[in-house]
Amino acid sequence: MSVKAQSKDAATNPRGIPYAPFVDKVEDYVSSRAEVDGTMKSFQEMISKYQFMEVNTQRRVAGLKEKIPDIQKTLEMVQFLESRRPGSDPIETTFELNDTLYAKAVIPPTDEVYLWLGANVMLSYPVAEATTLLESKLSTAQQSLENCEEDLDFLREQITTLEVATARVYNWEVTMKRKEKPEHGDEEAGGETKRVLPNG
Description:
Radius of gyration: 32 Å
Helix content: 55-70%
Structural class: alpha+beta
Strand content: 5-15%
Strand order of the largest sheet: 1-2
Low-confidence stretches: 4-8, 188-200
Number of helices: 3
């Protein structure tokens, strides 16, 4: 059974990442020492692919962990604005213009807010609609974070599985070499005996 044939039929996790082949019997993957190098190379290529996916997923997790608190803060602010009834006294607050600059503002009750959507785009929304939008974005981001963390655990398991598979194939090859040595030794010893006997 070849590694390539196994990988094509392999099951995947919910995000489509394939399971690594589990090597229970090395003989299912290699039938002779001549196939060892190709099999080991295939395992190393798969490890590299899993490691590449792991790095990308780690970056996505970092981005989501930075993004989620921002969404939560914005949602809390919109919910606060939504809770203020018409006719309430204006509130005085400070808001951030950039990393080191803040300004004071007086905010009367409002039924409209402006949200940054990214790519330098800001849109106006009714407060209730903004709340719904932000709740949806927060839920999606939290689910994405959960999926990414599950994928990281899954990827680490697959890398470990392939490292174990590589070690098993390597140990199998070492065992085969040791078995072949006595055979070659007997042949050499037999050859030397045949050469020595006539001189005796």
